[in-house]
What does this fold into?
Amino acid sequence: MSAKYYTQFILTDAKYRGGNEFSGVVELSQPMDGNTDRRDIEAVLARNFDLNKSDVKLVSWSRLH
It folds into this structure.
């Protein structure tokens, strides 16, 4: 069962220095299990922006119903 999350995140890659805070919806293949799974969301965002996982910092998230 997939789960959608509304996210706010910061991109720390050099090309996003001027405007680096974004928000959007991320869909995971299964619901998060806790704070440790925030890396799953960061990984999806990094792939979408063609960045390394270390270039994405998740600020906040909430599950959409």
